């Protein structure tokens, strides 16, 4: 092939790739998180101009001596690009689509494209293979979502990407590449809207507010940090020179929702969902256009949302009718100050107020009896970001952003002062009168407001074959928090069934249930409050080096620092110099943009959630005591009768446990490792992509992730210097590593200096129980120390993708992921035990909780198959489908106790002989390995849609889409009770593997939109 034909082919392919970006969401590199870029080559010294016809935005630069040019920080949209030299055009004008977080490559040469009859491409359907990208990402546009049956929330968009799965049914969320739900980051127009209190959730706008989404599943650049999971990056819509508007109504009537199933155990209903029903209607209106043509534009939206679901409690004795006021407003203003300076403002409010009217309920007659309470829930807040972009020179550009993210979380009820909450476990005998338990469904009174103030600066500087990207960002994350249980004394009563003579876990006060009793009561008081700040900062630098025309090397460094503070502003956990290197390459193997080999290595750090500041450094009171259960008593309030447990004396041998928090803020030097290491993950990806023809492409990649360290609370109860007399207490630290804390160095009983505890082999005081004394209290003998196992988590996956681009007729995407997620620590939350206090899991409370716990982790989904596509039956009718098939996660049989000492907390051991012996050394235990009890069933979710499109003469259209989610109404089990033994006993729990979480039933959604 001659060099002329070679260059012509590259030019056409490069242009086609740019035009195809909107049709297919493909990963591209070297662009910022709110916009995109255009780059390429042309005649040396040529004048290159890029213009957005819709907004009049124009920028002109001069190509370098080698003909290369680059336009960074371009708002997403459609552009034209031209090149001239000496007043004469250099090649034809090109149409370019700039997509979020991408670089579109367009070569401009003095070439007549009509002469390229041998190059048979159709740019509108050409799948994109970006030969400069080293990351793994999926782009989803508004046009994609209009065609597909995707439920209207950001999590559903993220779940379209390979390797992303739903989290535990108990507390939701999504998992990227084997990470827990608390390790992800979410952005809107560059503003970090991730929940920093518990890192499970984010601020969210309606679908119609967004223009594009970019779901990053791995290999992302040093611009992004504070995550060891994935990134969802979204950009809002903007106005143009043309006045536009529209309205959209989304309806989900209650009778369009299939009913859930009820579940029974030993003839008693323990899970009631057949009477639950959702109902939702949303009306969205929007307008956009010029304030000053070619200069100043607006986009504005308001959405009124009426949600009125109702649901029973698990045992079906109360019914709560909800009424939500979810009015949303949002908008953007874009100002082209000059050709080289722009200013953009994005703002939205997702504040929501929900009132739940609580009724006592007769399940048999399906009757609400009497209103007993009102529960008030306030969420969301106002968010905004102001961004200034300046093109300082041909080669140097800058973007500055300042923004604010607010999230409220208030829960209260009418009866907070008068009613305590009551809960029971399966198997507890219920009141003979079938009265509701307690007089409130509120488990806590919470007032919290989280406010993030964020500033960042990003720069791009082109130096020959090197593109330097560098920047700095800073956040101040403030939580104002107050929480307690409702009712007199702020007590929460939990009634548990236990085997006769069973030993209650020490974490609930310990003690033995007397023979003949069938249940016991945990009385718990939980209070905390204050204002807490965390300051996060980072700088980054990255070099994208075009080593040869076919080979790109990407190398970068990110330096993070985290500073978590207590209520008095003192640094509680402070870590800096967290150096995260990233290195990637992309090889255009044939030199024509059709085949790519790429790979990257990277390190990613995870910050400490604000919940740790609050609960560990905020004077937490967590008081638990165990008592005899003496039956039920009937009480009355406002004419409403209810049942309360009769709480007897404390169990023999029990105590009031305040080990998790005694209400005071102690000496923080003894509560935090002085030299703590951060949590980080290393990742390696190797991939291959290839165009099959003008319509199809395929790819395969391999991913390996390894998590290093954990930051969690550990009870250090002994030291090398003083043995059992060196008790330190609960410490936030790295389990299995050396921990430096303030403690007793000379064994006189007083903390007087720093000491180091190697928690890989010491730190836990072991005791053997040698019977009981005359008062029934256990006689404990100190038998030495033990350390903790180090946390481990690895994720290995093979990913296959097949794509066909949308060509106004049909599109298709298929992905299959074969993955292994192994270790002994899921991350900062525990899905298998429903423990979602991020960073304060039970995994490392004592050494036995995690001892012998290596195996397949809760987010292990061995097989993941995703299919989605659209087919246009006629120009007016389209059908769409989205299928998600997953194998189930592992099932573990947890026990209590262990064969090494007398502690009786959560463990991977079950007692099989002499379990009721007063001598712990006589008890015989059996290892109960992680994942040894099979797997949850496969889940199959099929969503389908039928759309009618009627274009209007002169522009605009009417669209009607009927979407059915979970079309086959699969309600398979997605969560089971994994407590094989809940107390030290010769028996296993009869409720082990009892289903407690299920797929959501089928529902139907009708969306009618008019755009003009």
Tell me what the structure shows.
This protein is mostly beta strands and 1012 residues long. 4% of the residues lie in helices and 51% in strands. The strands form 12 sheets. The chain has a 31-stranded mixed beta sheet that branches. Strands 2, 3, 5, 6 and 7 form a 5-stranded antiparallel beta sheet that branches. A 5-stranded mixed beta sheet has the order 9-14-15-12-13. β47 (793-804) and β48 form a beta hairpin.
Feature tags:
single chain, 1012 residues, mainly beta, 60 strands, globular, disordered N terminus
Secondary structure blueprint with pairings:
Blueprint: H1 3-20, E1 36-41, E2 47-51, E3 58-62, E4 68-74, E5 77-85, E6 88-89, E7 94-98, E8 103-105, E9 136-141, H2 142-147, H3 154-158, E10 164-166, E11 174-176, E12 185-188, E13 191-192, E14 210-218, E15 231-236, E16 244-252, E17 263-265, E18 268-271, E19 280-292, E20 296-307, E21 310-312, E22 318-325, E23 328-338, E24 341-349, E25 352-362, E26 367-380, E27 382-391, E28 396-413, E29 421-424, E30 445-463, E31 466-484, E32 491-497, E33 519-548, E34 551-565, E35 571-588, E36 595-606, H4 610-617, E37 621-637, E38 640-650, E39 679-691, E40 696-708, E41 712-716, E42 729-733, E43 738-743, E44 753-758, E45 764-772, E46 778-786, E47 793-804, E48 810-823, H5 847-850, E49 855-856, E50 863-874, E51 877-886, E52 895-896, E53 906-907, E54 909-913, E55 924-927, E56 939-951, E57 957-965, E58 973-976, E59 995-998, E60 1003-1011
Parallel strand pairs: 1-8, 12-15, 29-32
Antiparallel strand pairs: 1-4, 2-3, 2-5, 5-6, 5-7, 9-14, 10-11, 12-13, 14-15, 16-19, 16-60, 17-18, 19-20, 20-22, 20-23, 21-22, 22-25, 23-24, 24-27, 25-26, 26-28, 27-28, 28-30, 30-31, 31-33, 32-33, 33-34, 33-37, 34-35, 35-36, 36-39, 37-38, 39-40, 40-47, 41-42, 43-44, 45-46, 47-48, 48-49, 48-50, ...
């Amino acid at each position: 092939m001659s060099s002329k034909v070679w260059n012509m082919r590259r030019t056409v392919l490069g242009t086609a790739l740019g035009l195809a970006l909107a049709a297919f969401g493909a990963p591209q590199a070297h662009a910022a998180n709110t916009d995109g870029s255009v780059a390429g080559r042309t005649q040396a010294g040529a004048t290159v101009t890029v213009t957005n016809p819709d907004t009049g935005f124009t920028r002109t630069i001069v190509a370098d001596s080698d003909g290369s040019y680059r336009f960074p920080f371009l708002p997403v949209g459609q552009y034209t690009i031209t090149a001239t030299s000496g007043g004469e055009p250099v090649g034809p004008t090109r149409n370019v689509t700039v997509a979020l977080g991408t670089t579109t490559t367009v070569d401009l040469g003095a070439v007549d494209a009509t002469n390229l009859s041998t190059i048979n491409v159709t740019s509108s359907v050409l799948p994109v293979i970006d030969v400069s990208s080293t990351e793994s990402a999926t782009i989803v546009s508004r046009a994609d979502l209009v065609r597909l049956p995707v439920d209207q929330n950001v999590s559903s968009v993220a779940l379209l990407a390979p390797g992303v799965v739903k989290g535990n049914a108990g507390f939701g969320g999504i998992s990227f590449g084997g990470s827990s739900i608390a390790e992800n980051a979410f952005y809107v127009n560059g503003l970090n809207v991730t929940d920093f209190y518990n890192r499970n959730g984010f601020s969210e706008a309606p679908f119609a507010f967004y223009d594009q989404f970019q779901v990053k599943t791995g290999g992302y650049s040093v611009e992004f940090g504070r995550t060891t999971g994935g990134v969802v990056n979204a950009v809002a819509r903007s106005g143009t020179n043309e006045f536009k508007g529209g309205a959209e109504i989304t309806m989900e009537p209650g009778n369009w929702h299939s009913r859930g199933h009820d579940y029974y155990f030993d003839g008693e209903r323990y899970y009631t969902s057949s009477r639950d029903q959702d109902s939702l209607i949303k009306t969205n209106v929007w307008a956009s256009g010029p304030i000053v043509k070619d200069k100043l534009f607006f986009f504005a939206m308001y959405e009124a949302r009426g949600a009125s679901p109702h649901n029973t409690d698990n045992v079906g004795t109360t019914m709560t009718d909800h009424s939500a006021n979810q009015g949303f407003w949002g908008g953007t203003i874009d100002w082209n100050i000059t050709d080289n300076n722009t200013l953009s403002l994005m703002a939205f409010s997702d504040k929501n107020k929900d009132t739940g009217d609580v009724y006592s309920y007769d399940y048999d007659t399906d009757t609400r009896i009497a209103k007993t309470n009102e529960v008030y829930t306030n969420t969301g807040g106002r968010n905004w970001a102001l961004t200034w972009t300046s093109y300082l020179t041909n080669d140097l550009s800058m973007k500055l952003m300042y923004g604010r993210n607010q999230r409220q979380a208030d829960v209260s009820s009418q009866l907070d002062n008068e009613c305590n909450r009551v809960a029971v476990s399966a198997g507890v005998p219920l009141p003979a009168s079938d009265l509701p338990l307690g007089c409130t469904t509120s488990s806590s009174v919470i007032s919290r407001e989280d406010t993030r103030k964020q500033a960042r600066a990003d720069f791009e500087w082109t130096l020959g074959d090197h593109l330097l990207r560098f920047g700095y960002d800073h956040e101040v994350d403030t939580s104002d928090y107050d929480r307690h249980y409702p009712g007199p004394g702020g007590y929460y009563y939990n009634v548990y069934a236990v085997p006769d003579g069973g030993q209650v876990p020490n974490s609930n006060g310990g003690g033995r249930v007397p023979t003949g009793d069938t249940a016991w009561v945990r009385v718990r008081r939980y209070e905390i409050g204050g204002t807490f700040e965390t300051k996060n900062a980072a700088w980054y630098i990255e070099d994208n080096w075009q080593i040869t025309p076919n080979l790109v090397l990407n190398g970068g460094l990110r330096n993070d620092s985290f500073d978590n503070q207590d209520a008095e502003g003192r640094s509680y956990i402070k870590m800096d110099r967290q150096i995260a290197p990233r290195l990637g390459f992309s090889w255009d193997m044939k030199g024509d943009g059709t085949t790519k080999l790429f790979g990257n290595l990277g390190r990613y750090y995870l910050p400490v959630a604000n919940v740790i500041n609050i609960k560990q450094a905020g004077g937490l009171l967590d008081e638990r005591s165990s008592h005899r259960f003496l039956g039920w008593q009937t009480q009355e309030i406002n004419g409403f009768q209810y049942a309360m447990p009769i709480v007897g004396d404390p169990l023999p041998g029990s105590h009031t446990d305040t080990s998790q928090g005694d209400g005071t803020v102690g000496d923080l030097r003894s509560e935090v490792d002085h030299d703590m290491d951060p949590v980080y993950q290393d990742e390696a990806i190797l991939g291959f992509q290839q165009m099959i023809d003008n319509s199809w492409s395929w790819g395969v990649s391999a991913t390996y992730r390894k998590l290093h360290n954990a930051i969690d609370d550990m009870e250090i109860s002994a030291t090398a210097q003083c043995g059992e007399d060196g008790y330190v207490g609960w410490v936030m630290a790295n389990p299995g590593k050396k921990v430096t804390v303030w403690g007793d160095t000379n064994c006189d009983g007083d903390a007087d200096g720093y000491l180091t505890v190697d928690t890989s082999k010491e730190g836990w005081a072991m005791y053997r129980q040698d019977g009981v004394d005359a008062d029934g209290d256990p006689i404990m003998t100190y038998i030495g120390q033990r350390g903790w196992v180090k946390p481990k988590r690895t994720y290995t996956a093979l990913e296959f993708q097949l794509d066909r681009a949308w060509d106004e007729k049909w599109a298709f995407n298929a992905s299959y992921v074969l993955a292994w997620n192994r270790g002994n620590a899921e991350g900062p939350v525990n899905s298998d035990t429903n423990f979602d206090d991020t960073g304060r899991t039970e995994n490392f409370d004592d050494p036995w909780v995690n001892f012998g716990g290596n195996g397949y982790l809760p987010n292990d989904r061995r097989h993941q198959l995703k299919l989605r596509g659209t087919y246009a039956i006629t120009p007016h009718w389209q059908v769409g489908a989205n299928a998600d098939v997953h194998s189930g996660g592992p099932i573990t049989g947890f026990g209590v106790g262990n064969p090494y000492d007398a502690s009786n907390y959560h463990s991977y051991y079950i007692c099989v002989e002499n379990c009721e012996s007063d001598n712990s050394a006589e008890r015989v235990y059996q290892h109960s390995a992680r994942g040894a009890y099979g797997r949850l069933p496969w889940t199959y979710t099929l969503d389908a849609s039928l759309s009618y499109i009627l274009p209007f003469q002169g522009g605009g259209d009417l669209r009607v889409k009927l979407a059915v989610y979970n079309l086959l109404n699969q309600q398979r089990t997605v969560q089971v009770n994994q407590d094989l033994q809940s107390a030290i006993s010769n028996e296993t729990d009869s409720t082990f593997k009892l289903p407690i979480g299920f797929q959501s039933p089928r529902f139907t959604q009708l969306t009618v939109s008019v755009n003009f």
